[in-house]
Amino acid sequence: MNREDILKKAQEENNGKDYADIEAQKSGTRAAYFIAVFLVIIVDLVNGFVLGYVNRGMDFVLFTMAFVAFLTKYIKLRKRHELFVTIFWGLLALMMLTLWILQLCGVMA
User: Which of 13, 61, 90, 104 is the most exposed, having the fewest neighbouring CB atoms within 10 Å of its CB?
Assistant: First the structure.
């Protein structure tokens, strides 16, 4: 294969994708996730000190975000390690969902 054939094949595979845009979106998503984690920690701390309890609903959302991120990664890569991490985050998300429902029912504060 000569250089032109390789370039033509790469362009066909890229199918008009703008990789700069994709990378910007990935880094933006990563930054948004870390900001969300930071804000949930701050809100949990403030709620704990001011109200005396932590709203587990926010933790449920946060852990579900991590679960979906690792589930997507596992589906694409099919690595056993990613499956274990996905299961870990899924179990944490279910635990926080259960605690949040118990908070809403008034069983726990």
Answer: 13
pLDDT at 25: 84
The CA distance from 61 to 38, in Å, is: 13
Place of tokens 């991120």: 69
68 burial via Cβ count (<10 Å: 0-12, 13-18, 19+): middle
Distance CA 44, CA 53 (A): 8
Burial of 38 (0-12, 13-18, 19+ CB in 10 A): exposed
Q: CA 91, CA 103: separation in Å to the nearest integer?
A: 18
- What radius of gyration, in Å, describes the C-alpha atoms of the chain? 21
- List, for the chain, all residue ranges whose pLDDT scores fall below the cut of 70: 1, 11, 14, 16-17, 109
- CA pair distance 99, 78, nearest whole angstrom: 31
Q: Let me know: does 102 contact 93? Beta carbons within 8 Å.
A: no
